[in-house]
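Appendix B, record 7
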Amino acid sequence: MLPRCRNPYTGQTAAVTSVLWLRRDLRLRDHPALHAAAKDGPVLVLFVLDPALLRPAGAPRVAFLYRTLRSIDADLRAHGGRLVIRRGNPLSVVPRVAREGGATSVHASADFGPYGSRRDEAVERALKDVAFVRTGSPYAVAPGRVTKADGSPYKVYSPFYRAWLDHGWRAPASTITGRVDWITDVDGIDVPNDPRLPAGLELPDAGEDAALQAWRDYRRTRLATYPDDRNRPDLDRTSRMSVYLKWGAIHPRTMLADLGPRDETFRKELAWREFYASVLHHWPASAREYFQPQLAGMTYARPGTKAFEAWQQGRTGYPIVDAGMRQLLGQGWMHNRVRMIVASFLVKDLHIEWTHGARHFMRHLVDADLASNQHGWQWTAGTGTDPAPYFRIFNPVSQGRKFDPDGVYVRRWVPELRDVEGGKVHEPWTLPDPPSGYPDRIVDHAVERKVSLQRYQDVR
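C-alpha cells (predicted):
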C-alpha cells in the first residue's frame, strides 16, 4: 500500500508521489536518482526542453538529444510509464509539474556545471515546501569529492588520477524499472521533429540500448588494441562512447565496472572527463576565461578572417587539418588526436583565440560537453591545466605522417587527394604536379611557430 499524505497544493489526501527530473541521465538502468524517487512512491518522469541550453547547441547535438528522448519514452512505455516533456524555463516548469502531479519531492542527478548548479539552486528555492533531492551525478566520482589532503582542488591531471583511483566509486545500481509505479496522467508535449542536419550527416543510433550495445561491441572487438591504436584516426579504433556519456544514456561507472587491469589506458581517458568536470566545478569561469590568466594578454588575429573561414571549411592546405574539419562537418564528430591537431593549428598557426574554436566545436559536435571541450581547447592552446603549457605546438605534417602514415584518413575526407599515394598525401605542395582543386597552404607552419613562441615570450 502506498504511503499517503496531505497534498500541500490541493489540500486533499493522496498517495505520496515524486518527480524524476531527467537531464544528463537519459537511461533507466544504473540510475541512483530513480531509486531515490521510487522510494517516495509513484514516479512522474520529466524532461524540460530548456531554451538556454538548446540555443547554443548545433543541429547534430539537438537531433541526437531528441532521438534519445524518443528512445527513453519508448522504454518507459514498455514498463507502463511515459516521459512528460515540457518546454520552458525549469524555474517555472518544474514547480508547475510538481503541483500538477501532487508531488512532495523532486529528484534529480546532481549537476555540477556552471549553469546547471545555478539553475538547480533557483529551482530548489522555487519549489518551496517540495523537497529537491539530488542523488548521483553524471560522473563515477562527483566533482568536488577528489581533493588534495588540504582540501584544495587539483589543477594537474596525473595526481588527480591517482587520487581518483584511490577514492574509487560505487558499483552500478540495480535495475528497478519493473518495480516502479509510474505516473502517466500529466500532460506533456511530443518530442519535436529533428532539426535539419547537414546533407549526408548520419548520427549513431540513440538511446540506452544502443549505448549498451555499442559498449559491448567495443569491448569485444577493439578495447584490447586501444592502447596501441587510440591515436590512429585511419584505424578508427576509439570507442565513440562520448556521445552516449554526453546525455547519460550510459553511466561511466557501468563502463568502469567492465574494465580490467589491462584496460588502464581506457580508464585514464574516462578519468580525463572527470578531471575536467572537477576543474570546471571549482573554476566555473574557466568555461570562458583563461585558466592561466597571465596568457590572456596574448596577441591574436581577428576571427572574422578568411583564414578562420578556411579552417572551418577544411581548406587550409594542410591535409590532416582539413580532413579533421571535414569529418566534423560530415559526422558531427572528430577523432580526439585530430581535435588536438586542428586546435593547435587554429591557435598557434593562425593565431586565432581558442574561444572561437571552442565555440565552433560546441556548435558542430554531437558529443559536445562543456567541461571536456573548453578545457581540451585550453590544454591544446597552452592556457589550461598543464604545468608546461605553451611550447607544445603540433606540426601538422609530422602529426599526419605519424598517426595517418599511409594517408588513409586524409583520403577518406579530402577527395581532392585520393589519387596521391601513401604518406606523400601530407605534403601535397611538394609534389611535381599538385592535385587540382586542393588549396595551397594558407600559412607556413615553420614561420608561424616562431611567431607563436615570440608572442608567448612577450606576455611572460
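Remarks on this record: Residues 53 and 245 are 17 Å apart (CA to CA). Confidence is low (pLDDT under 50) at residues 1-14.
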